[in-house]
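Reopening this one. Same input as before:
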Amino acid sequence: MRYAIISDVHANLEALEAVLKEIDSLTADRIVCLGDTVGYGANPNECTEIIRDRAGVAVLGNHDQAATDGTSVEWFNTHARAAIIWTKEVLKPECAEFLKNLPYTASIDGARLVHANPSEPGGWNYIFEPTEASYEFRCFDERVCFIGHSHFPLFFVKEGRSCKAVLPEPLKLEQDKRYIVNVGSVGQPRDHVPAASFATLDLPEGIVEFRRVEYDRRLAYEKILKAGLPRFLAERLLVGE
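Same output, byte for byte:
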C-alpha cells in the first residue's frame, strides 16, 4: 500500500492539481489530506470538491473550522482573517458541510493523522522544536504521526529518551524508533522553497519520502488579487515564505 499524504492546500487550485498529477504518476493507492483545504487562496470550492472526491481519508484543519462554524477569527493574523471572512462568503453550503464534519484525527495502518498536534487536536498548537515533539510523542500510541499546520516539511525522530529534528529526506522507518512527520504544504510552502510539498508512505518498504512539485504560481497569484484578497497572500507564493 502506498499513501500520498497532503496538507494545507489552502484553496490553491493550481498547486493541488499539479500535486495530484504527480501523485497519479506515482500510482499511489490512497490519498490522505491533513486539513486546511481552504483559507488564503482563491479556489476554496474547487479544492474542497477535489479533496472530497479524491481523498480516502481527511481531517479537519483550523482554517477549515474557522470558515465553516462560529469559531472566532480574532486570533488569526490580519491577512488570514481577511481570507477566512472571504471564504465564508463564497463557500458553497455543500462544501462547508463536508469540511465541518471532518474529524480532528484519524488513523491509517498504524499511523496517526492530525492537522496540528496529537495532544490537543482542536487547540491548533505548532510543533517546531524537539522539546515540543518529545511531549507530543506521549500523546499517541502509533509509531508514526503525520501532521501539517506549520507548512514546514520536517521529521522528528524519537529513539529511547532522545528526540531530534531531521530535515526532509527519504527515511526508512525503523522498529525501535518513533516518528512525527510534517509533510509541509501543498498550497503555501513556508520553507523558502515555493514548490508544493507533500509526502508518500510506502508501507511494504517502510519508507517516507518528501516530494516537491512546481506549479503555475503566477496564475495562483493573479487569482488571489482578482478575488480582492490581501496582496501579501499572493506575493508569498512566489518566494515560499
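So the earlier flakiness isn't reproducible anymore. For the record, The CA atoms of residues 40 and 204 lie 36 Å apart.
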